[in-house]
Amino acid sequence: MDVLMFATVAVLGFTACAEFGSYAFVHPVVKRLAPRDHILVEQGLLRTFGIVMPVLMTASLVLAVSYAARPDGAGLPEVLRWVAAATWATGIVTTVVVNVPINLSTLRWDKDFPPERWQERRNRWEWFQGYRSWAYLAAFLLVALSVATVG
Fold first, then answer.
1. Which of 94, 105, 96 is nearest to 130 (CA)?
2. Per the count of CB atoms within 10 A, which of 47, 53, 96, 135 is most buried?
3. What is the 3-state secondary structure (H, E, C) of the chain?
4. What is the pLDDT of residues 12-46, one digit of tens each?
5. How many CB atoms lie within 10 A of CB 67?
6. CA atoms in the 13 A half-sphere facing the CB of 127
7. pTM of this structure
């Protein structure tokens, strides 16, 4: 059994699905809530997703790079794995540069007296959440394609 291949597919798949599911199905509903409820839900999500996802995102990148770097020859599967790792890395960079600072400020907001232009900040977060979600999904699909190409 190829443990690295399995772990890479499983962890990237789970993480990409969690992020994409949040982006596509949870946050559109949250955006329609009244401001107080919107902020409460965002803060709650940050206290759950914000604990687990940094670990999974980082583990996914480590696995993607490890899987791409394995010495099993060149060709399309290897190219797909490297493109997947690079794509995943762009999602992490945007997360650290844009989403994390917004998340940290969101945790400090008073739900009854949100800061001015709070929705603009959340909209910026949403845009980069969308980018990250699509990047992670694409990276997972590239890894899956590399596995299918080998077998």
1. 94
2. 135
3. CCHHHHHHHHHHHHHHHHHHHHHHHHHHHHHCCCHHHHHHHHHHHHHHHHHHHHHHHHHHHHHHHHHHHCCCCCCHHHHHHHHHHHHHHHHHHHHHHHHHHHHHHHHHCCCCCCCCCHHHHHHHHHHHHHHHHHHHHHHHHHHHHHHHHHC
4. 999 999 999 999 999 999 999 999 999 999 999 99
5. 25
6. 6
7. 0.93
